[in-house]
Each structure stands twice: as structure tokens, then as C-alpha cells.
Amino acid sequence: MTTKTKLELTWPGKHKRPRLEPRILLEDKALSYHAASHGLPDLVDQAAGAAAPAFDDNLLIHGDNLLALKALESKYTGKIKCVFIDPPYNTGSAFTHYDDGVEHSMWLTLIRDRLEIIRTLLAEDGSLWITIDDNEAHYLKVLGDEVFGRACFITDISWQKRDGPPNDRKIGSIHDHVLVWAKSRSGISKKTVAEEKFNLMPRTEKADAQYQVFNEPSGPDPRGPFRKIDTTANGKGGRYVESLYYPIRNPYTGQDVWPREGTCWRHSKDEMVRLQADQRLFWGAKGTATTPMRKLFKYEAKQGMTAPSIWNDTGLNQHASSHMEKLFGEKAFFETPKPEELLQRVIHIATNPGDLVLDSFAGSGTTGAVAHKMGRRWIMVELGEHCHTHIVPRLKKVIDGQDPGGITKAVGWQGGGGFRYYRLAPSLLKKDKWGHWVINPAYNGEMLSEAMCKLMGFTYAPSQSTFWQHGQSTETDFIYVTTGSLSHDQLRVISEEVGSARSLLICCKAFMADVTAFPNLTLKKIPKTVLHKCEWDHDDYSFSIDVLAEPEEQPEEDDEFALNADAEEAADE
After folding, report:
1. What residues pair up with 61 in beta bridges, in sequence order?
2. What is the pLDDT of residues 393-422, one digit of tens each?
């Protein structure tokens, strides 16, 4: 009896995971951009039949992408249809905008941490697409299988990135990998849920040319062009089935026809009789063919084509570089930007207009630009300063209809839509000069309320009429956040307003009360109640940090204070 052993990739530091703070996002309205708000028409992509993505639906986030992914969890879990990422390849090269030479073990840890959150964000029918080269592709395949499950791996696409091999090697690579995973496996078919929703590629002229109008003794078939398909099966490889070796009658000659020697029919005798009765067997222009062919009419064919696993028609790095030069000038381009045609194919296959696309390694902003032109909603995250020097100006050109390159003509893009620009908020807690954790002075009341809602599992939804309703977890469960100290009389008034049918979590600095009097209230002190929840004041989880070092010691979990605590303890602080 054999026992199956689970194989997994191991590396130093694998089991060390960051305890991420769920930051809030702060909009910088000076960098947010909307066509209509800048005196430009809010145009529609008429050619693709999709409206320009709405202003509120598109987010450009500047900051560490691991913290940004964590910040998106509360609102976007299960809502992202497609994630495309082009992470640093870990080649040892020093790129202008990335430290692309992180030690192998560190690289695996950093990628793993991001993939785990990405999987959470993906919809059940969502998919992840990652570009990578040979240096880490095979390790990434194993790592991705651990996170998503081997059954959810879809394919490894070879994308031709250059038109010829480099001259510095005996064998020069001209391709990158595009590894694709689905969020979940279908319980009905052998495919993943994402594959069942994938779109076919448009039919080509070459594919349509296979369908022709053929002459027959009774004249051309009125059902239109068709393609001829062999009705026999080769006996090699065990495909010969004796029961499928039988004669059929040629309706034009009246003779019995048998399969060629060593072959059999592909269909049962009943099916061949049905095909014959429906005039779906082609016996040649004169009706004398020794083996009939089955007709597959053009109108019956799939309205699209299956995408191959080798892509040599979606643009090269040099095409993308040329596009960037035209947008920003000769010196303002990335080392290996991805062409818009590559993203167009990914987004076409994986999404439909209105779906949400995420890229947490935005780079030059190609994913957002292409998603925008194709009528998809998008979220991009970028840490580098090129978020301001490249991405923002590029997106403005797309929105203004001033980007003629890439896929603009192919999809008939004219401009429109917009995006909101966000920065990650600083850490909620910082140490004061005595080394004590305190609420960050940069936080105002609104920021504190939103941050506490995230930390305590509430949806931030401040009421315009009820001061103690800052958020809610259900229709009857609410949260109130204040830095003030609450007295017994204040709590009594709040408790009466809440009523017996609702409950309220109060996060405050301190309180003094007869705690047994208010069963519909629960009180917790800040910052004590959140000290244990995550790593505080840690801003950089990027690809240039030493994640294998021991993390800073975090505070132990503090007791939570509820209304049934002793009044003396409750009044502490």
C-alpha cells in the first residue's frame, strides 16, 4: 500500500508571514482625473460597444503593493475578474524602476505573500495571469500550484517578446512565460470555472477560408459553405473498433462502401444513417467518392477560436518601447514594457466589458490603459515615482483621447472616463517619544473611524444623521469610534438611542460607567484593543527589503474591555 506524499517547494523563511495592517486609502483629488471635470466630453467607446469606465470605478494606488492588496480586501474580496501582474523577474539586473535582483528565497516569499491575497480578491470565475522568464518560471509554477491548487492551473503560454535571439548566448531566449491560474475548479466539467467563462478569439480569415461551397450531384447545399471532416478513424494507437467496421450505401451509385483497410467509421451505424438522411455526407462532386466526408457547416461552427498556447502575434517589447517613446520622449521609457496587444488578448479572453481588472505591479500603466480602452474597470498599484511621471500622464492621454498608439485604433477608442488617485494612509499607530504605542497624530476623526472599521471587521458607512453610526457589520450591528472619554450619562443616552433591537460596539479612549446597565453596548479601548492585530508602523514590504530578518517584536494581546468589567479597570487611562 502506497501513501501519497504532498510535494511542496521549500526555502529559508517560507513560514514567516507578515501580519499586515489593513490600511485605509486617501484620495489625492489633485491627481484624480475625469474627462468631464476637465472640460472634455465623456466619450464612449463606440467600436467596442462598451462605455468608458466610470470615474469612481478605476483606482490608481500609490504605495507598497502588499499593503495596498491588504487594503483592498475589505471591499473587493471575491470581486476581481482578472489579475495580470508583471513582477520583477529576479534576474540580477538593476532596472531603472525596480531592484530586479532579489535573493531567490526572498523573491519566493514576497511573491507568495502577494499571491495569497490575490486569490482572496479573485471572483470564483476569476483568473490570474503572470508574466515571467525562465529564471523563476518553474519555481513560480510550483509556488502558484501551492497557493491555488494544481487542479486550478490552466496553462503556460509562450509569448514571443523579441524578433530575434540575443547574440551573447549560444541559445537565446525570445519568449517569456505567461502562467495562468483560476480561482476555483468546476464541480461539473473538467475545466476550471474561469475557463468555462473565457471568451474565444475572433475568427480569422484563414479559419473561415476552410468553409467552401462544393458542387454535388444534386447541386450546392442550400445550407451554405461547409468544411469536410473525415468520417473514418485510424486504427493506430488502439482507435480501431471492430463494431464500427460496417458498410454504408452510397445513395448515388447504390454500392456498399466500407472503411479503408485498417480503419473504421468514427460513428455508429445509426448515426451514419442519420447523417445520410440529413444529407450531411459529402460523396464528391460526382457522387463517386469511395469514402464520404461529413459536412460541418459554417453557421454551426463556434463563433470564435480557441487561443493557442504560443503567442507570436501580440506585439514585442520593442513595439511597447516605441509606444512609450512617442508618449514620453526618448529617455522616458521602461526597459521591457509589455505591449498593449498582449494585454488586449489577456483581457479579451478573461473578462467582459464592465468587469474589474487588477494589476498590483503597474509599471508603466499598460494594464490600466488597455482595460480602460476596452471598457473594463481597473485597479492599479505602483510604489515607484514613475506612478507620477509615467502612469498618471499616460492615463490622462488615454482619457483625453490623445494616445493614438497601442490598441487605440483596433478598438476604436476615442477617450472618456476617469480614475481616482489614492495613497496608502500612514500606519494607524506609532510609538511616541517614550516608546508607547499611540494613535498616529496624522489621523483625524474620519480617518480613525474608517481605520477602526477595517480593523474590527465593519463596513465604513458613517451616518449623516446619527453621530454614533460610523459603520456596520449587519443591519442591526454598528460601530462608534471616538478618542474621547465617555461617562455613564453619555453611554446611557447612546444606549437608549440604540435600543434593544440593535447593538453597538464603542471604541473609545476611556469610559466610566455602571457597566451592567447597557446590555446593547460593548466597549473597547483604543489603541489597546488593536495592538495585537498586526504589525504597526511597517511601511515597506517591497522587493528591496530583507524579509528574512526577524520581524520587530509586536505587543502581546491586551485584554478587551467590555461593560461587564470592573468600573475601576474601565476608568483606567
Report:
1. 381, 422
2. 999 999 999 999 999 999 999 999 999 999
Q: Is the CB of residue 80 less than 8 Å from the CB of residue 33? A: no
Mean pLDDT of 548-573: 42
Q: Are 383 and 390 in contact (CB under 8 A)?
A: no
The dihedral sign for the CA sequence 362, 366, 368, 369:
positive
Q: What share of the chain is helix, strand, coil (3-state, %, to 5)?
A: 30, 20, 50
CB 120 within 8 Å of CB 112: no
Of residues 418, 409, 313, the one with CA closest to residue 31: 418
What is the DSSP secondary-structure string of 68-97?
HHHHHHHHHTTTEEEEEE------SEE-SS
Positions of E strands within 195-249 = 201-202, 226-230, 232-234, 248-249
User: Following DSSP, what letter does each residue of 453-467 receive, concatenated?
Assistant: HHHHT-EE---SS-T
pLDDT band at 562 (very low <50, low <70, confident <90, very high): very low
287 and 250 Cβ atoms separated by less than 8 Å: yes
The DSSP 8-state label assigned to residue 516 in this structure reads G
At 564, the pLDDT band (50, 70, 90 cuts) reads very low
CB atoms within 10 A of CB 125: 20
Q: Residue 480: which pLDDT band, with cuts at 50, 70 and 90?
A: very high
User: Measuring CA to CA, how many Å separate 418 from each of 326, 393, 398, 403?
Assistant: 22, 12, 9, 15
Q: For residues 431 and 537, is the Cβ–Cβ distance under 8 A?
A: yes
In DSSP notation, 13-27 reads: TTT---------EEE
The rounded distance, in Å, linking the Cα atoms of 127 and 184 is 9
SS3 letters for 310-375?
EECCCCCHHHHHHHHHHHHCCCCCCCCCCCHHHHHHHHHHHCCCCCEEEECCCCCCHHHHHHHHCC
How far, in Å, CA of 73 to CA of 476, rounded? 23
CA nearest to 573, candidates 534, 540, 529: 529
Cell of 570: 474601565
**Strand, coil or helix: what is 38?**
helix
Q: Give the mean model confidence (pLDDT) for residues 362-369.
A: 95
Which residue blocks in 7-125 are alpha helix, DSSP H? 65-76, 104-121
Omega before residue 393 within 30° of 0, cis: no
- CATH 3.40.50.150 domain range(s) in the chain: 25-202+306-424
pLDDT at 30 over 80: yes
Most confident of 531-540, 543-552, 557-566: 531-540
For the segment 304-322, the average pLDDT, to the nearest whole number, is 91
Strands 356-359 and 80-85 turn out to be: parallel
Question: The domain at 25-202+306-424 falls in which architecture?
Answer: 3-Layer(aba) Sandwich (3.40)
Strand stretches in 383-498, DSSP E: 418-424, 429-431, 437-439, 459-460, 471-472, 477-481, 485-486
Residue 91 confidence class, pLDDT cut points 50, 70, 90: low
In whole angstroms, what is the distance from residue 122 CA to residue 358 CA?
9
